[in-house]
Amino acid sequence: MNSREFRESVSASAPPADTSPPLAALWWAQKGEWEKAHAIVMNDESVEAAWVHAYLHRVEGDLPNAGYWYRAAGKPVEKGPFEAEWNAIVAALLAA
Fold first, then answer.
1. How far apart are CA 63 and CA 69, in angstroms?
2. Where are the chain's structural domains?
3. Of 40, 43, 54, 88, which sits most exposed with the smallest number of CB within 10 A?
4. Prediction pTM value
């Protein structure tokens, strides 16, 4: 699956069956389901989940918490548009 196909899948009622938890969280976040997205990454200790967790808290407006998760993911704190960050995370996770 590529980034375009992943983005198009958001029109469905559930993420594709083979979607990793961090990507599934991004999928739900794109649908406006922040709580569902957060629940997916909340107890996932992977670096990928930490990156998504950071993004979610930035979207929420909790910048100190987002900063913690960016550090846990080894990523710089993002300050650009949410959509650009979402696209970058999706592309990186699909390429992994």
1. 10
2. 19-95
3. 43
4. 0.94
